[in-house]
Automatic annotation (TrEMBL):
The name this protein goes by in its record: SUF system NifU family Fe-S cluster assembly protein
Any coiled-coil regions, as ranges: none
CDD domains in UniProt: IscU_like (cd06664)
NIF system FeS cluster assembly NifU N-terminal domain location: 10-125
SUPFAM superfamilies (UniProt xref): SufE/NifU
Length: 158
């Protein structure tokens, strides 16, 4: 597949996920909640997480928010990829995604859908858009207050 065709495919997936998200809404019940804001462009998001009974594995992730196609598509792809992951696996995926946004590798075959976001790395100003949901998820999972209503900002990210 040529680079141009690959770029078109990436754009198509991002637009499709933006227009028809599969994981928009609020989990029931909500075990972790975090709001995120990107002051650079105004994107906002709220991530909710449902954990298993032991509290160590993600059963469901949903999001609500307003923002560009990149931020909303990234949130939808993230929510799908995290189903059934342990908290530590999820945090490792956050780290890997943020590295991918810096041009440091990609996801393995089982999570290759997330690699469609790689094209965003070519546009540094849009990296924060792609990282917003991941940043909020990390804060939700690491927060001592699992029902946080405060906004976290990803303004300090590069």
């Amino acid at each position: 597949m040529s680079l141009g065709n690959l770029r078109d495919l990436y754009q198509q997936v991002i637009l499709e996920r933006y227009k028809t998200p599969r994981h928009k809404g609020t989990t029931s019940p909500v075990h972790c909640r975090q709001r995120g804001h990107n002051p650079s462009c105004g994107d906002t998001i709220e991530i909710t997480v449902q954990l298993n009974q032991a509290g160590d594995r993600i059963e469901d992730v949903k999001f609500e928010g307003e923002g560009c196609a990149i931020s909303m598509a990234s949130a939808d792809l993230m929510a799908e990829a995290l189903q059934g992951k342990t908290i530590s696996e999820a945090l490792e995926m956050v780290k890997r995604f943020q590295g991918m946004m810096k041009g440091e590798g990609e996801f393995p075959k089982e999570h290759r859908k997330l690699n469609v976001m790689q094209g965003v790395a070519q546009f540094p100003v849009r990296i924060k858009c792609a990282n917003l949901s991941w940043h909020a998820l990390k804060a939700a999972l690491e927060s001592p207050n699992p029902e946080s209503v405060e906004f976290v900002s990803n303004e300090t990210e590069t």
